[in-house]
Amino acid sequence: MHAITSLGAAAEYFERELNPHGSGKHFRTKCSNAITTQNHVELNGDESGRTENHNVADSGAVLQLPILQQPILQLPILLGMLGTIVLWATLTPTTFAERTPNIVIVFTDDQGYGDLGCFGSKDIPTPHIDKLATEGVRFTDFYASQPVCSASRASLLTGCYANRVGIKGALFPAAKIGLDPAEHTIAEVVKPLGYATACFGKWHLGFQKKFLPISQGFDRYIGIPYSNDMWPGIPERGEGYPALPWYNDAEVARTIDDLDDQETITKELTEAAVGFIHDNGEKPFLLYVPHSMPHVPLGVTTRFRQTTKYGTYGDVIREIDWSVGEIRKALEEEGVLNDTLIVFTSDNGPWLNFGDHAGTTGGLREGKGTTFEGGVRVPCVMRYPRLIPAGSECNQPAMTIDLLPSVVELTGGKSPELEIDGKSIVPLMRGDNDAVSPHDAYYYWYHDSQLQAMRMGKWKLHFPHGYRSLQGRAPGNNGNAVPYTNNIPIELSLFNLETDRNETVNVIEGHRDVAEKMMAIADKKRAELGDSLTKVTGNEVRGPGRM
Fold first, then answer.
1. How much is the pLDDT for 33?
2. Is the dihedral of CA 292, 171, 225, 326 positive or negative?
3. Residue 120's pLDDT is what?
4. pLDDT of 142
5. Which of 339, 274, 408 minimizes the C-alpha distance to 55?
């Protein structure tokens, strides 16, 4: 990706030194991965002619170097040439066999675990996302850190549990806080490495300039600063909300005034993402696409209306799938598809009380706004063929907090100086035979820093708390929600997710030892990050940025 000393110069050297008369057989190179044949040596790059780690100025050209005809001289000359290439490569910043990957993260809003073909959906065709899974890895036990918008995004971008960085719940337009610029985002990890960076979509970590993406490591930003329902278009909110702004970098380019304006959001974000890829194909880049959909109110272009069995919600998911396909096509056109880590996942589970305008949990218990599996377990697929075996599946727990440290490992970037919670899951991505989750446990906070649940291996422990549920009542329809029953109590409960991923049978009586071990571990985490349920103030909470 980064320009290196000219391959043409190396070719001229070989031709001048090894056969000044220009006769004989030829040495052909496009860099890298040496393949020898009877007549030539090939160093194959990708389809664009780029090296594994560098953008070659004479990309796509085939360099031909004469080799002396005499059979007795061919082997030592070939070995000498290859040795010279290896030596020359070691003098460059990185070797031919290495290439820091581009990073593309597609992050949907309120998409359910069961809303993709590769996760069991029979009603919503998602061929492009399914293809990522076929060519990469499907994480079956992947989690958002919290079942709500802002907190979930804070974790993905910083590698921290959201309460460590002081982000709770969903920030509203009147909020005077945001993600503290002192925090190190995933964009700021790769910027010093020469990466171009962009965020196209829903930010939701503060709308004031000091909190916007362009102040948090991103070169470009297009999208909305908070959820697409935080506007006057919701009748019961009326004039309590300002017009929904559409940002271009730090400036409001226009406002989204009606449902017609919402219909083109996915298309516009996709066009921005594709343009960014084409503008930066010759350098490394990080592209973050946090879609505002399928959060209500749903918006979809006419092209995708009434194209699925699931109704408008399914149509929205299908358009997001199309968006993934367009991003993939742009990567192919730039010749960098196989040099790009693509991650597709969601910020939390579905908003179930919206009924046919919400997704499905795939049978998991409850949804968004709860720490049951339906609220925090999310679909996740990754593709990066230079690391990830095609058609693989990972059943180990992992979480969005682990993406930043994984990017650090893959790119050679520097970890944030401030404490983070995530750990690299590269061994899981790679499919190492002995790879297990890098964490002893994962923790799930919600509301005002309530530590409601944790997972350790196959075990999920819920601490006593109140949760919301429809309790079997019919949900809403056509964009209208029905109210939840709130503050339903759950006692201390232990579930074996290996045999009961739907969290239906509390097995704590038969496994008190497991529960006690988990509670002891949880006490240590409470001391660090707090827990309002037990009135513990964490000693490592840094707090948000403030106006």
1. 32
2. negative
3. 97
4. 98
5. 339
The candidate with the shortest Cα–Cα distance to 154, out of 198, 211, 77, 214, is 211
Quick one: pLDDT at residue 234? Answer: 76
Q: Name the one residue in this structure whose structure tokens are 């030194």.
A: 17
| Residue found by looking up tokens 């299908």 in the block | 318
450-466 burial: b if 16+ Cβ within 10 Å, else e: bbbbbbbbbbbbbbebe
List Cβ neighbours of 212 (8 Å cut-off, separation of 6 or more): 203, 206, 221, 225, 247, 250
What positions carry a catalytic annotation?
A: 149, 204
Q: Residue 152 contacts by C-beta under 8 Å, 6 or more apart in sequence? A: 144, 145, 146, 162, 347, 348, 400
In angstroms, rounded to a whole number, what is the distance separating the alpha carbons of residues 420 and 187? 15
Residue with tokens 């899981």: 428
DSSP line for 227-293: -TTSSTTSTTTGGGS--EEEEETTEEEEEE-SHHHHTTHHHHHHHHHHHHHHHTTTS-EEEEEE--T
Name residue 157's amino acid: L
pLDDT at 277: 98
The pLDDT score that the predictor gives to residue 53 is: 38
pTM of the full structure:
0.83
Q: What share of the chain is helix, strand, coil (3-state, %, to 5)?
A: 30, 20, 50
Q: For the chain, give me the number of helices (H) and strands (E)?
A: 12, 26
* Residue 429 exposed, middle or buried by CB count within 10 Å (0-12, 13-18, 19+): buried
Tell me which residues of the chain have a pLDDT lower than 70. 1-98, 235-239
512 burial via Cβ count (<10 Å: 0-12, 13-18, 19+): exposed
pLDDT at 233: 81
Using only C-alpha atoms, the chain has a radius of gyration, in whole angstroms, of 26
Helix (H, G, I), strand (E, B) or coil at 445: strand
